Amino acid sequence: MMKRYLATSAIALCVAGAAHAEGQLNLYVWAESISPDLIAKFSQEHDVQVNVDGYTSNEDLLTKLQAGSSGYDLATPSQHFLRIMIDEGLIQNYGANTLTAYENIDPRWRNQWWDESQEYSIPIAYGTAGFVVNTELYNGPTDSLGHFFEPEGDLVGKIAMLSYPDEVVGAAQLYLGVPFCSEDPAEMKRVLDLLMAQKPAVAVYSSDNIASRLASGEVATHFWWDGEELKARVNGAPFALAMTKEGLVGWIDSMVIPVGAPNYDNAIKFIEFISEPENATEQMNFYAHSSPMTLVEENVVYTKEVAPELYPEVPVEFSRTCSPAAQDLVTRVWTQLLQ
Amino acid sequence: MSDSALHNPPLDRPHRPRPWHNLPFWGLLPTWVLMGFALLVPVVIVAAVSVATRGTHGGFTWDFNLASYRQILFNEGWTGEMEFTPQYLMIIARTFVLAGATTLICLIFAVPVAYFIARQTAGTKAVLIYLVTLPFWVSMILRVYAWMIILGRGGPLPRFLESFGLPPGTSFMFNDFATLTAMVYTYMPLMVLPVFASIEKLDVTLIEAAHDLYANRWTTVRKVILPLTAPGIVSGAILVFVPSLGAVLEPTLMGGGKQMMMGSLIQLQFGGGRNWPFGAAIAMTLMCFVVIFLIFTAHRAARKGDVA
Q: Rounded distance, CA B135 to CA A257, Å?
């Protein structure tokens, strides 16, 4: 009886949601990045039907927004893509700095180069990317990117890179001391030479299915993100993120509203909702990446003791928005590497 | 399109049926609309983008520019001057070799399978054909993941071979063998079905006649069975070869993505490369090759048809 009642009301909710166009919110965010509990809570509190689509690279998001009329109300690009979206007029100035959410941003993340006036975006998560090792298969040193790019011993033939250049070329640049977004072909040729020399030791260039590939022992090290490694590790996987002295590649994702968003008001409501300290804490506990918001400290699960990988003591270098010339060099390196 | 003129005779010729009485026109209209919107319009858009000028961060502007086509052959070298770059041609060639190998292996397996099925009783035949199409009921990406488990470290195949002395921890993943296995597996039904259809229609008495005329088995296959089933083999080959050219999933997941294929090259240009016109130009080049291949096979099939 109870079941039937629930089913009926679920159908009624769906119908109600579909019937009122103003009661919708279309999220296009990093795959599995937003807590489903929070989405359900928001949905209930504001009587809004939330549709979530996921992407797995900034490039996917940018291409979709450039193609026009995506129908999405909210997206979460990383800093270097956020800058492009502002410059290309793909996202709206929603007066982010006038929202309550702005007051909740940790001051060190406000008004950065990717959105100086903080009118276009409210940050939601930040973190790093580096190489993660399976400690059952490799117990050698992990203090330098050199162990990843110029491997010896156990790691040879057991290395996994990502399938696109964005983060891994950045890491190679950190290792060689080549600045991000270099427009100097000679410097980028060094990056190519490094990656070419590494290639015989690489098993796979892939960004999918990373956790199971690394856990099964198919590879012994994978380029990956801190929060994903952390989530797998606290669930018992023998993983460790290498704290490399050359630094880690940093990123920060922010909530933006694409031009032409059909449910602008609900997007604002959602940004305010998820930026409240209580909800921001729950979001961080779900996503396992650091939060740039004011949190309810006693409820934070991933403290420095539990999750040292979220509090790196090595330098963190944030990816930058490259000029077309620099971006072409990156693409050329990648094409020649995999030609 | 000129076809509407064909089906819309001028009104000053009253002896011709009026347009709204023209049944063939209205009957075929859905086909033309579908062909126009699903086939012609997208191709025209891709062709137009391929001669547009790239935008700063992806996208494009409508300024005529052939730079994308030049880029397939000539690029700025690391020292700064324009030079001939064979890298894209190598990717194109590799894609063709992979698609050709897939087609050939599918053919070698599919002909005996189709022949066997065609010779069964009607009931068994239906069940076997159903089994051939069964994999299509499952999402393609799931089937590729299944192969990753079968061939991967600790999977059924390595475990089985380890019991015969293969060193433990062996993996058959991330090489051309893995890519080809998944490709052949994925496209096999597309080869079996048309070949089956033409073998089923084959008149058994012709084979008997060949034997009566002292043809041995091999001659019978060569002179009777193959020419008569050629249409099925050709359409099967087209159905396998053409989609194989655009394969992205198998080379990336099974092959380890260590060597680019045309599909992943196009994807890179629209994504990280932020060069849509170049991506479109490669897509157009791929399409030209496909058209050339189709004309070539159609031509050969027609010639074979004359001989038969």
A: 41
* Residue partners of A203: CB distance under 8 A and separation at least 6: A157, A158, A159, A160, A218, A219, B173, B174, B256
Q: Would you say residue A162 lies in a domain?
A: yes
Q: What is the largest CA-CA distance in chain B?
A: 86
Residues of A in contact with B268 (CB under 8 A): 164, 331, 334-335
Q: What is the tens place of the pLDDT at every residue in B161-219?
A: 988 888 887 888 898 999 999 999 999 999 999 999 999 888 888 888 988 898 888 88
- The verdict on a CB contact (< 8 Å) between A63 and B271 is yes
Query: Are the beta carbons of B232 and B195 closer than 8 angstroms?
Result: yes
Measured CA distances, A192 to A63, A339, B28, B108 (Å)? 26, 12, 55, 41
Is B79 found in the same domain as B25? Answer: yes
Q: What is the pLDDT of residues B159-173, one digit of tens each?
A: 899 888 888 878 888
Tell me how far apart the alpha carbons of residues B40 and A151 are, in angstroms, rounded to a whole number: 51
Provide the residue range defining the domain that includes A158. Answer: 129-250+311-337
Q: What share of chain A is helix, strand, coil (3-state, %, to 5)?
A: 45, 20, 35
- Which member of A59, A66, A336 has the closest CB to residue B272? A59
The parent domain of residue B131 ranges over 92-139+188-307
Same domain (yes/no): B273, B127: yes
Burial label, A40 (beta-carbon count in 10 A; 0-12, 13-18, 19+): exposed
Query: Which stretches of chain B sit within 8 Å of chain A by CB?
Result: 55-59, 75, 78-80, 87-88, 90-91, 145, 148, 152-154, 169, 171, 173-174, 252-253, 256-260, 264-265, 268-275
Position B181 in a domain? no
Compute CA B55 distance to the chain's CA centroid, rounded to the nearest angstrom.
Answer: 32
Domain annotation covers residue A99:
yes
In a domain, B106, yes or no: yes
B90·A205 Cβ contact <8 A: no
Q: Is residue B118 part of a domain?
A: yes
